[in-house]
User: Fold these one by one.
Assistant:
Number 1:
Amino acid sequence: MPIVHITITREGSGPGRNAATAEEKAALIKGASQLLLDVLNKPLDATFVVIEEVELENFGWGGLPVPEFRKQLAKKSHGAPTAPE
Amino acid sequence: MPIVHITITREGSGPGRNAATAEEKAALIKGASQLLLDVLNKPLDATFVVIEEVELENFGWGGLPVPEFRKQLAKKSHGAPTAPE
Amino acid sequence: MPIVHITITREGSGPGRNAATAEEKAALIKGASQLLLDVLNKPLDATFVVIEEVELENFGWGGLPVPEFRKQLAKKSHGAPTAPE
Amino acid sequence: MPIVHITITREGSGPGRNAATAEEKAALIKGASQLLLDVLNKPLDATFVVIEEVELENFGWGGLPVPEFRKQLAKKSHGAPTAPE
Amino acid sequence: MPIVHITITREGSGPGRNAATAEEKAALIKGASQLLLDVLNKPLDATFVVIEEVELENFGWGGLPVPEFRKQLAKKSHGAPTAPE
Amino acid sequence: MPIVHITITREGSGPGRNAATAEEKAALIKGASQLLLDVLNKPLDATFVVIEEVELENFGWGGLPVPEFRKQLAKKSHGAPTAPE
């Protein structure tokens, strides 16, 4: 009876993509269900997986919408001579 | 103060529909609120209901996205001579 | 594949009880599953129901923990001569 | 490690808007993160905020979809001579 | 920024246990975080995992609390001569 | 109709405490409800707040249960001569 609810931001994992692909979602579903089987011995048929995609401006970290938070992180990295990106 | 959160797949309940209708959603809201009144004596005004619709490819069962899981179920049924559909 | 998540406060529905009983929980599970069958034609076996019980001090309404909110509501009612309780 | 999940109806907070603006969402994210810092001393970087927007017909209160519930509330107010709107 | 919320029933995965062990929980956390890294390239430090344990009587499947549902499943299996357990 | 769901780890915010106090929870409820009023003009009476407390071993960050994650963070800080704690 496990339920795995995965919240991700709606964005692509590479150039030319703006959201997780159907293949990536299938891999998340397969991997999460397998994890419950491996660790707690739950049959695959007993696990539900829900993937919720959230717009970037609806997700906050560090008190900021994610796009702003990332800009700030990037700035910090560039300012630090030992950790360029 | 109950909160009832109902997660469903975004698909029609009959031909020519591709999502739950406004009437169906209203029936879910009414029924869920009435249930809390009947069982726990919670006034209708004290219950919130949220219906979350999830794309079929974002919902997994049996380690597979729902459309694949259903195909597999259908195959099993057809292979079993005593349980045709 | 529906998931019905019901959040309730941990308190009894009558004297001498301090939480929902097993019978009340079973009635919520039965009723919620039946609702999805009646409205969206979802088989009982395809619906998961989760009941989450939350301590009264962890639930807020009107900007107050529920016990305070109820006291305030009761005061308002008693102050209004046309709506005694 | 706090997670703040805010569910709101998808509607504008004023004329000419049909959803929360990016500025309003940023204010929710900032305020919620600051709240956890002020009350529980959680660093901003340790808090995630997710804003989920729900269509009006998917949100129920008083056993009704929100638009119907509001109409009913408005009617009650108009019927009461001491509390016109 | 992914959030993985895993809901499981509070029960042991073997004799003499009545809940998931700390080791099993650590394995779920590690596996879920690794999955997001493998599939969507999300750094481990950007993923939160929450494990929610639900009492058996608070979880429903097939319109029944899980303990009843399992008894029913077991009965069905025993009645079928080709699929004894 | 906003719902604010706050997930926190069950631990004290200072010495001699092992969980958030009733006062801290009341402050979270008040602050979250006020935030929705300030930003989206939602009346206090229209907002529900739920505080969910999660055991430390049930919360993961960086692929590890929170207690392990914190130990690792502390080690990194101590190893770095420019960022002692």
Note: Residues 60-85 of chain B form one domain.
Number 2:
Amino acid sequence: MSYFDAASGAPLHPVARQALMASLDEGWADPTRLYREGRKARLLLDAAREAAAEAIGCRADELVFTSSGTRAVHTGVAGALAGRRRIGRHLIVSSVEHSSVLHSAEAFEADGGTVTQVPVNRAGAVQPSGYGAALRPDTALACLQSANHEVGTVQPVAEVAEVCRAAGVPLLVDAAQSLGWEPVEGDWSLLTAGAHKWGGPSGVGLLVVRKGVRFAAQGPVDERESGRAPGFENIPAIVAAAASLRAVRAEAAQEAVRLRELTERIRARVPRLVPDVEVVGDPERRLPGIVTFSCLYVDGEALLHELDRQGFSVSSGSSCTSSTLTPSHVLRAMGVLSEGNVRVSLPMGTAEEDVERFLAVLPGAVAGVREKLGAPTAAATAAGPAELVVDSLGKRCPIPVIELAKVFGQVPVGGTIRVLSDDEAARLDIPAWCEMRGQEYVGEEPAEQGTAYVVRRVS
Amino acid sequence: MSYFDAASGAPLHPVARQALMASLDEGWADPTRLYREGRKARLLLDAAREAAAEAIGCRADELVFTSSGTRAVHTGVAGALAGRRRIGRHLIVSSVEHSSVLHSAEAFEADGGTVTQVPVNRAGAVQPSGYGAALRPDTALACLQSANHEVGTVQPVAEVAEVCRAAGVPLLVDAAQSLGWEPVEGDWSLLTAGAHKWGGPSGVGLLVVRKGVRFAAQGPVDERESGRAPGFENIPAIVAAAASLRAVRAEAAQEAVRLRELTERIRARVPRLVPDVEVVGDPERRLPGIVTFSCLYVDGEALLHELDRQGFSVSSGSSCTSSTLTPSHVLRAMGVLSEGNVRVSLPMGTAEEDVERFLAVLPGAVAGVREKLGAPTAAATAAGPAELVVDSLGKRCPIPVIELAKVFGQVPVGGTIRVLSDDEAARLDIPAWCEMRGQEYVGEEPAEQGTAYVVRRVS
């Protein structure tokens, strides 16, 4: 099996395992106790905090350990907002943040706050000026990921931090995807991450609150972790998290070069090996290990299943692989094709031959799924009526796009096709198809049922 | 070293270690993913949930795993209160709950709710009628621990659940101290626990919400653990928690008998070995492994330090061992002596000879601390004035009681002594001293500085 989903979670790093084992015997007791076992536990906890703080580039007393990266985000966002409640109740986030940030923003809105989403370009990156435009006198907090978890695009964190700093607004950086690679540059105020993304154990998140940043922890009082992370500290896991962060950082520079070359291979070769593919995300400013592409006329779940059967574990932002039946909010915000979406995120140490095998297997896997779905293989040329209606109501992605493509050749140049669909993915995928095909997307109109997506043939 | 602080946290059970090791390789991936590693993780998680649910006596879909027992309490209390917000905003707790429950209650009060604390008797037990009297038409939730964490007293949970059930009010049971021993009896509605109390790993709490109980999870939305415990599941630790719960349960009945005999030995012999000791907690309805006593004229921290030096790790509810400088709320609610407080909580498997060695060491340790503090060894007999003032302002527990005892013999029978103290512990310890000595505690009065505690000599 080749596990290519490191962005979801990495297998345990050998150093993490070793540290976990060692500290199970020394770190199980309550570190607030004065007796021998408690003192040992406290020493381990303190040493882990020092080590992790050094790798992050913060003071040890600015760092607390939470139970997950998600929890660090929830706590960090809520605490920073509450700490600056008197300033105002406005929050800025980018439109491609991790769901933990967006859900924190929703909870804040439900509680009466106001949220501004900063848009991204087609590569998935925000512009610092977007944050500048969103800042208001009542802005309590801004959030920006260090790099995107679905497409790997690196965000201009230092520049955005500068814009926020000039306005006196703290910036929280969700560094979940990048902290294993390098410290976050720039003058940020809060930082969050989760250890299992870099090969640390599950159950450990990190929350940094810089000295001087106003912060009011929410929820019931608890004395542990400076009052910011209630509950008995999971010291063996914390020790393993800190040790593995140091370990992956020692390998990071060299491994980044190697993985970047491997993902570059995928970026370059997939469009040549597989027809009708869009590689998404910034080609340059990106994480070393992530590459994401979408395949026209492909059902994401079927493709993942086929790749799994052939020994590859990848994930997808396609709607049909999620419980919500809507495409990933990241792909939507970027305005790129969502159907047949595949995210390959290589763990450190991925072998070159596994990537080559993936490239060998992928074309057949995509072709097989397309064949089952009856995807168009060549455009029809018969000239039919100048206006055509495709009724795809009740059909799920990628069927609406397949049905559009099948009849497209029947209308003459200048003619239009109205695709009726009640699948949320069509809103993204029909315009994306037009862009890939060089055809005109006219727009959408409400229909008796669902929505009509109007396309004009221009060539 | 003899570790006698199992009520704080138990060393990792061998079965937990084994399960943790085994599932580090199989359970690290995201259980929501469809690929092989994700499916394996999901299988482990489902099996752990089934096993733990069986041990608790609930349905698997009623149980979620949180990151700690404290987190389970915070989530359970907040969710149950929110779920019944329309009924009202009144919460009932006992006065001897774990701080996680009391802090949840404080947070609820800060948010506009009302809290009633049900008192306990001198043994630390609530009366079911106390809950009956506290119930109101707007009561949203009642909370009761299954057994007390500081003195081991077992609470009448089934009877209180019955009283609550009759009023249509859900009862949340904090089963942290007892779940390793046995399931919680009675018709409770919610239950919480933490795995590291029974020898499971740190980082795993349990929250059970019975079907039909209204529950509205608070905080940002997250799809994991039925929306009740955000963040990536810590599956290796969850597997270890479930496996060790089954393992300790298999040993529990036999081990309970053995530990009960050992703690009974301590209960019976400490008062004979050490003068001026009060053993606290219910002598019959109690956990097998916990025994707690307080020693007059003893500084708890000094005693713990001395016991640690001699190889015993115990904890204390004395004010001088806590950061808050107030005695444990449990001892205060019970109205028992807090100075020189020692809680012995034996882990499963404690050897008889370790307990015997503790009993051999304790008298010398107590005597040593008393000697350093200049504690009275025999009552003075000289008859002095009929009224005496002892100025203990600025002195910490146990000095005020020592100074009282030293001069007590100087006043004639019928005479009074006013002890001036600004130490919070005096409020508890001076009345307790009177009760132990068979003298009359008249009451307290505000003084120019601190408080005057008035004692009358009756014998």
Note: The CA atoms of residues 420 and 452 of chain B lie 4 Å apart.
Number 3:
Amino acid sequence: MSRRIAVLGLGAMGLQMASWLAKSFDVVGYDIAAERVALADKEGVASATSAKEAADGADLVLVAVRNRAQLDELLYGADGIAEVMKKGSAIILTSTIGIAPVEEVAVQLAEQGIGLVDAPVSGGPARAGKGDLLVTVGAYETEYEFAKPVLDAMASTLVWVGKAPGKGQSMKTVNQLLCGIHIAAAGEALALAGKLGLDQTVALEALMSGAAASFMLGDRGPRAIQADNGEEAEVKSRLDIFVKDMGIVTDAAKSVGMAVPVAAAAEQEYLLGFARGQAAMDDSSVIRVVSPEDRA
Amino acid sequence: MSRRIAVLGLGAMGLQMASWLAKSFDVVGYDIAAERVALADKEGVASATSAKEAADGADLVLVAVRNRAQLDELLYGADGIAEVMKKGSAIILTSTIGIAPVEEVAVQLAEQGIGLVDAPVSGGPARAGKGDLLVTVGAYETEYEFAKPVLDAMASTLVWVGKAPGKGQSMKTVNQLLCGIHIAAAGEALALAGKLGLDQTVALEALMSGAAASFMLGDRGPRAIQADNGEEAEVKSRLDIFVKDMGIVTDAAKSVGMAVPVAAAAEQEYLLGFARGQAAMDDSSVIRVVSPEDRA
């Protein structure tokens, strides 16, 4: 592949994706934080001194930003890449920023002949670093095919869920609805188990052996038990990501006239966690919102 | 084993457990509905003409009733078995009736020298019929050991979660909190997927491949999609069971001073389903509570 790829945004996910892709492609990376660029450089990612420099001449620009404001700044701000990107190139947007924003940005980019491949990813940094992500894509066919070699490299599971930008976000929104609820539910379950006098670790094992099992219960359960017992669990995924994502979930539901009471209750728990100062803690710490102070 | 076992309550679960146990033990069964006794008889379960007759002389009485009212009637009603059960015998209570009720009944039975093995089961009738249940037990050691051969036969996973009656119910309560939330969450997710224009079956498959996966999503998902599209899905587990069980969950949480907002939101969805006339439908039909009428 002689295709030239820029990776913009070298945060937890972007750095891992850039490093992995650099093993198979010609990758140049950029981040507004110089120390992130230096980290990527160590992993074999060519560095640029600006977003514009990285995107200039690139066939595909993989974007890993946090939210719509960062995306708008990256595209149209002082160091905005939209004006330097060539016709026929495409942006692979790996971020979860909501359905309507992606649809709007896709229209703007199309006016300049730039494609948008809506490809939000799931799986976390460790899996991003070995091409083991779940990638759900919404894109027109031509652009999907153009980006497919890179998407294939990033994903262990690649699902083309819809033939337009926005459908990847739709799928990710549904995915996050479940993930966000399951983590909050794991918190309620394990806090209740403790309060009812059960051994939480024995309970977790029994729960995972039957119909109560979920991926999130198995993955977050041990860290939730730590958090419930006053320990600081390792931060594998920050709590404030779910403040953002559950906001996207309830907004999306409202936009189509749907009530989602269980998702809304989970959203409130993340907001309560945020208000309690847990934004940068592991998302499993949401258990503390419901955990009684006088736990045994 | 020359131990004599009575199985009282031959509903969906009781009939299957009795039939399975009759392959290895001397089992006599009874139900207030004569047609259920006839069904059990066909499966090799000796029949009795009253609960008292079945329990008289039994070493272990396995009880599969729906709720506390039925249990009280069975123990102390007109055909009440407590007065005929022998000292040193024990009741294996497989029902989910709540923590406090079991603790109270255990005290009453202990006064007569009858043990109570609190052993709520999970897994549904099909698994009950082949000894493939998850059984979480709360019992004193002597009684647990006494009942263990029968519990081992019923269970593929047997967990002795606590050394007193009530602890089995506690564990089951936590289990049901998760199961009830996960089914309601699957409904919200799949209804939202449909409303956002995604193919629900493709979405379900993608969701099950990643962090959004749960046992309930995989098991109930296909039937939820049927229910969302106006079909009558096969009834594998009735919706009103979760009206009862989520009531037990929120009561248990209140009793220990805990808020469980996500479980409470799920409980409301089952109550809404009940109010909409879905009590006897499959529990996956809870999706209809949130599904918009104008779905595409």
Note: The mean pLDDT of chain B is 95.
Number 4:
Amino acid sequence: MSNTTVSEARTELDDQTELEARRREFGRQLIAAGLLIPTGIDGLYGRGGDFEAIIDGIDFAVRAAAAAAYDTAPRVLRFPPVFPRANFEKTDYIASFPNLTGAINTFTGDNKAHRALLADRENGVDWDGHLESAGTMLVSAACHPAYAGLTGVLDEPVLLDVYGYCFRHEPSLDPARMQAFRMHEYVYVGDAEGAAQHRNSWVQRGLDVLAGLGLDAQAVAANDPFFGRAGRMLAANQREENLKTELVVPLYGGLGEPTAIVSANCHQEHFGENFAITAPDGSVAHSACVGFGMERIALALLRTHGLVINGWPSSVRAALGMPQG
Amino acid sequence: MSNTTVSEARTELDDQTELEARRREFGRQLIAAGLLIPTGIDGLYGRGGDFEAIIDGIDFAVRAAAAAAYDTAPRVLRFPPVFPRANFEKTDYIASFPNLTGAINTFTGDNKAHRALLADRENGVDWDGHLESAGTMLVSAACHPAYAGLTGVLDEPVLLDVYGYCFRHEPSLDPARMQAFRMHEYVYVGDAEGAAQHRNSWVQRGLDVLAGLGLDAQAVAANDPFFGRAGRMLAANQREENLKTELVVPLYGGLGEPTAIVSANCHQEHFGENFAITAPDGSVAHSACVGFGMERIALALLRTHGLVINGWPSSVRAALGMPQG
């Protein structure tokens, strides 16, 4: 290793340490301001009133962009945070992201079994062994519960407006990496050309939404964090075929990678095949989606415009549908 | 058994069958109208745009009542649908309602363990054995995640505005018994007198909100569905001490018990003791809450005013903050 490389490595390490320190400091600031409320577990927070006002404002801006884009409004679907295991299976998420999943267990026993559970609990013994699968999973991506309703032959391409809570088990001190967060998605299901056009149109529309909020975002080719050795190939393939575009914003100046706050994706025939959805032309349906990461956009706004929303630029407050100071 | 008793028993059975039939029929109507979207599991539904508009409208009415009641706005707290196991433990919910709980499991293994999971999956074998506790639970009542943040000595009584998704594992064909639903709560934590006053004031305020929505609700003494033999004593005690008042509306005329759509509860020192919250006077804090069952109120509105929200009475639409037709 040459001296230069050692010095470069040291600088990278310093940067990493500095980045971690800045993330923690940002987290502390958010909590001190009452924007986030700690729960005792990394990546799980309550939200204060101002934080929710920002989320509602972002949703106002996103919906305005969709309303301007479509003559016929996309079909509104809202799902609870849990959905059937059978539909989760069809997403193949357990194959690609097992470490991020959330399976729901519950107690289905009788009085005697309950007494045994409580005895373990009293003795400080883990009581999970007394539970069984509830047949449900936490939603990993807002659009996942939507596909099962489309099984069959589509009369025409479908456009969905889906918004809900997502769960990903990745405990972190980085405020931008939450275990539970909201995603507002616009989903297209139809033919390959329509899917590509949907994804591409939302890259530009997403940039416009973010610019209206005073965020200087860039569109970059990206890949999902597929699990394990096999996952590396999937990730490389996703990049090579240009299936995922992220809109990213630097949260800490030049430190670390910029943070993805919007994601626009072509799924090719993945959901069409697994959920047996046939496009109007008789082929297996293609799909595409754009997902607005609501909490991450809120954090980008707070980093950019400050922690006091009353002091945000009037153009930004107007884009968020907030009353003018 | 006398003839009269046999005949009465037969009538009761007929009523029960008729009630089940009406519930299924209502469920079918809601799905046909696109208000609810079936997921393949009883009690788990997606929501259509009109259903969500009703939920937003109910929230508008509830918030208006709270705004009129308080000079100082209650503190807004919004929690995701999962919260730490450690805080769930302090609610004692696993002792009283084990059958309703939802524990989160996830995969924490390596490549090899993942291959073993996928092999089981491929062979149609249940793969839950490859998962471990994620340290989190689904939220059973909207207020549960709020108490951990109050541990310590309160300077003054606390008033919280909490709204979120709740999970209760009770699969049912009754549309009014969902596994995932939203609850908007106003929570008081302070002294015993303040808690009783909070509960009582919200019984009347709740009735007023519902009357404004054109719902003819009654306040009745009630108890929670505590689990098992020991639970029967807890339920009797709750009724005897008048700790739970439900606002109920008949959904199917005189058939079956009317449905609870709002619940006002005194918790006595339960949460104060378990979360170590001390009232300003130095005693263990008492708490009380009112919970508006958003989905159930929506269903009561749909039963009462019909499935087409554009046709609802203008006074009801005004109370819901909906534009006038």
Note: The first strand of chain A starts at residue 36 and ends at 38.
